[in-house]
């Protein structure tokens, strides 16, 4: 049977390539060569007799059939992790207060929290999804045990950091007029992404106005898709069919650094949450 030839290691590699969108990045993170990784993915496609990837200018993205298989692969890995955790780890009890920055609370992090909850059902999760500045305030008031947010909003050292690349995007039929104000779609102030976007435009001398604001990534995506203005989004929030990358008339791509923060004194229940959240980070953490 095909299922007997597809091990968890192959599934984990496939999921990593889909999330990173790059064979070279995954190869570097796992210490393998890109050619070996490419051969693994071709073997998987051969076993399934389906094309799972299509190449783009920025790397690879799953095909329609690849997205279907990604859903099954993610579920199989989660089930395997859950089984191992329940059998190998001691039962943990207690509460964990976790703060997630709204702009990076994508599917991977909630999925990681779901694995934690299934593995340790007696852990009480108190999860807050807020904009970055509000999270920084909560952290300063000792209202969180763990925070995933911009490194700029707290003075503490991060356990792990990663960089979020921000691309300028607009609707496929949107063509900004250089002679007119640039209409912007942005998070509600105060917001790190908004500040970076406005600072970059000011440095470039590009006149602009904010026409749509929201604290929801979903609302910003819809505003961009419907031509209300230009915005900045990370690669995993860009929908290729209804958005296009904008390169002319705007500054180059932007970036923001995020971190995983935790208190110095951590009980076992918090350590367990940190271990699971590390697995859901958008990129390999740097110690």
Automatic annotation (TrEMBL):
Chain ranges of the HTH lysR-type domain: 6-63
SUPFAM superfamilies named in the record: Periplasmic binding protein-like II, Winged helix' DNA-binding domain
Residue stretches spanning the membrane: none
Gene3D superfamilies the record matches: Periplasmic binding protein-like II, Winged helix-like DNA-binding domain superfamily/Winged helix DNA-binding domain
GO MF assignments: DNA binding; DNA-binding transcription factor activity
Domain of life: Bacteria
Keywords tagged on the record: DNA-binding, Transcription, Transcription regulation
InterPro entries: LTTR, LysR_HTH_N, LysR_subst-bd, WH-like_DNA-bd_sf, WH_DNA-bd_sf
Family: Belongs to the LysR transcriptional regulatory family.
Official protein name in the record: LysR family transcriptional regulator
Taxonomic path: Bacteria, Pseudomonadati, Pseudomonadota, Alphaproteobacteria, Rhodospirillales
């Amino acid at each position: 049977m095909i299922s007997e030839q597809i091990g968890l290691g192959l599934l984990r590699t496939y999921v990593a390539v889909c999330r990173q969108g790059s064979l070279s990045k995954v190869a570097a993170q796992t210490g393998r060569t890109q050619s070996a990784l490419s051969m693994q993915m071709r073997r998987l496609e051969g076993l399934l007799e389906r094309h799972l990837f299509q190449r783009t200018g920025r790397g690879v993205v799953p095909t329609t059939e690849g997205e279907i298989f990604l859903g099954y692969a993610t579920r199989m890995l989660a089930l395997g992790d859950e089984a191992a955790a329940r059998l190998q780890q001691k039962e943990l009890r207690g509460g964990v207060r976790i703060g997630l920055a709204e702009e990076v609370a994508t599917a991977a992090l909630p999925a990681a929290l779901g694995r934690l909850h299934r593995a340790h059902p007696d852990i009480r999760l108190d999860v807050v999804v807020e904009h970055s500045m509000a999270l920084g305030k909560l952290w300063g008031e000792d209202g969180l045990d763990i925070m995933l947010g911009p490194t700029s909003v707290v003075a503490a050292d991060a356990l792990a950091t990663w960089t979020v690349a921000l691309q300028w995007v607009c609707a496929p039929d949107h063509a900004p007029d250089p002679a007119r104000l640039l209409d912007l779609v942005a998070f509600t102030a105060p917001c790190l992404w908004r500040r970076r976007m406005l600072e970059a435009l000011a440095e470039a001398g590009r006149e602009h106005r904010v026409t749509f604001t929201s604290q929801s990534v979903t609302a910003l995506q819809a505003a961009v898709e419907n031509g209300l203005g230009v915005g900045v989004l990370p690669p995993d929030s860009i929908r290729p069919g209804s958005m296009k990358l904008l390169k002319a008339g705007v500054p180059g791509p932007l970036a923001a650094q995020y971190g995983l923060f935790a208190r110095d004194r951590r009980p076992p229940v918090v350590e367990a949450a940190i271990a699971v959240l590390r697995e859901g980070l958008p990129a390999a953490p740097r110690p």
